[in-house]
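Incident log, structure service

09:12 report received: a user says their structure output differs between two submissions of the same chain.
09:20 pulled the input from the user's history:
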Amino acid sequence: MSGGVDSSVTAYLCKIKYDVCKGSTMILADSSADSVSDAEAVCSILGIEHEVINLAEMFRKKVIEKFINVYESGGTPNPCIECNKFLKFGEFLRHAEVCGFERISTGHYAVIERDNSGRYLLKKAADLSRDQSYVLYMLNQEVLARVDFPLGGMLKSEVRELAYKLGFKNAKKHDSQDICFVPDGDYPSFIEAYTGKIYKSGNFIDKSGNILGTHKGIIHYTAGQRRGLGVAAKSRLYVSEIDAGKNTITLVPENEAGLYVKKITVSDVNIIAFDELPENFRASVKTRYRQKEIPAVINRTGINELVIEFHENLKAPAIGQAAVIYDGDYVIGGGTISGLLD
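09:34 re-ran on a clean worker, output below:
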């Protein structure tokens, strides 16, 4: 329970469904006293026990440090996925088991179903504007069997309305829009403060290696970025490549080769819908959280590796982000973008 409206309504729905339930608040980074207080207040109204679990050290190692490492290598991380994998559906699930609980419930907007064979499937939420299936692709059958997403079939407006009726003081609480440990969205400043490093400036270059200007350090930029470059040019320029080894950032106009790619390589693949992917099949793929799925051909090149070829050129996919494969509303699986191919 984060202290927000989603997890609070989730707790209420669990109280109705199960004989015994307990609210847990994970201390991850700079969790505020207000968040803990809000969660405690909800549990008091519901008449259920509340606990606080300090997972800050694991969060630092598994989420924050990887976040920094990916930026330092020129990629674009997705810390929510790492948090889900290692903490919310990893350590927290193990903690629940030790405490004698069979299942955990979270306020994620997604749906878990079972097919005729008994296999667990992950499906988009009813409220597509809130759907979080993209950041849950790493869940396996063992985890899906022990997880509930009570809000998956609800609209966000319904969740808030129910919170009002229940008298929860956090019913009006705003949803978090940024990464929890960087609430102001200033990732470079956070990284510099955390590491104590000074990230050297370097050259902006074009595809031919000509110097276009000076960048502030590669942690300030991501693939596809247009704003804040500070380079004068006849046409708008976009970041197409970040070379951490050479400390250079390649800029290209929107219509020039390099910004768009046809293929990507994907590693650390997890599959939900099958025991094993076919070697070659068609599906839809999204490579950013708010992006629409794009038709593609998926080629399995190893046990945990894929090459995805899109039907149309894909604009500025970022190494380090997730590529999630869909069949309609269902998640087939996904992995981490590890390379870009022409």
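09:41 both user submissions now match this output. Likely a transient worker issue. Closing.
09:42 reviewer note: The mean pLDDT is 93. The two ends are 44 Å apart (CA to CA).
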